[in-house]
Fold this protein.
Amino acid sequence: MKKKLLSIILAATMVASLLVGCGSSSTESSADTTTKEEAGDTTTSSADGDLQVGIVLPTKDEPRWLQDQAQFEQILGDAGFTNQVLFSQGSSATEKTNVESLISQGIDVLIICAQDGAAAAAAVEEAKDAGVTVIAYDRLITGTDAVDYYVTFDSFAVGVAQGQYLIDNTTGTGVPLYLYAGAATDNNAFIFFEGAWSVLQPKIADGTFVIANSSEAVALQDKAELTRDEMATIIGQITTDWDFNVAKSKAEAHLTAASADMKGDVRILAPNDGTARSIADVFAADTDITSYVVTGQDSEKASVQYVIDGKQSMTVFKDTRTLAADSVAMAVSILNGETPATDTTYNNEVIDVPAKQTDIVVVTQENVQAALIDSGYYEASEFTGLE
Ligand code: BGC
């Protein structure tokens, strides 16, 4: 036990130094699961031989989560924690099996980014019953008291930044606005939309924008603040399910249905980078679209290239180094028997979950070098045409 405490204190010191400056990330990984344990160094293994920290991420099919995986493996590995990263691959059933597998390996802390925020409640309740401390990562798990902490980016600010970017890059009135949202099973999709709506709605009400693709949003366009149910109605119509193919076919259907006055110079609220690239490609291919401004989020490599090339207008940089480091610092506090530092709470329909929130950065052609290259997140050589 003494040895374990010592290793935790050592790990905490290492995490503290990592929080000051993390190494660069890699989005390349083909591994399904990864266990890090530095052989021969007793401070890197748990005293009882069990796995200490289990991480469950939604899918390997989106570069966003591979960025998080790389950060976890680096930070936890360097800090000397035994850990395993498992992917749910879009399935709540797989997610539950993953959680059960980690519980059976004796984890003390579970860091989980839910595939479906409501469905994940059952899995984390099992973890909680087994004495595991649960940290919801990036996406809040709803409808349960089995979430101990939440580590997240400021998702409302993401939506505001996307909406504000469209506003700042629009002149005149009657500009067609195409709205897209994330998956209705993801609490974040609501927060992103809520943030975007908070700035876009006044500009719809004053005639700057005309909603082009959502009768549900049109029906509610005079309401500055929407209830969760009202947002659900709109999101139900414009959801991409966080899926590139859904985004592509919806955009195609919208442009096929659009009248001539909804073409020309248009604005597009795209919820994240993967969907933004799909939607941008569809709009770029339509000869009746003369120009478009499209949002994004995550600063995925492919979208950073799109931004450099002028094919995507902006992305939001969510520094996964910070989020992973914050989660690990939280895990260290928990393993050390301390109460982790939090700065806000998020209500998950049952409890107010203590949360640690991280700021976001808007990335455009103008600051891509400073935000993503000079900060050490990516290498300049990973892109072409960087000034
Ligand atoms: C995350 C985004 C991500 C999206 C799709 C959201 O919960 O916050 O960063 O793009 O899920 O995976």
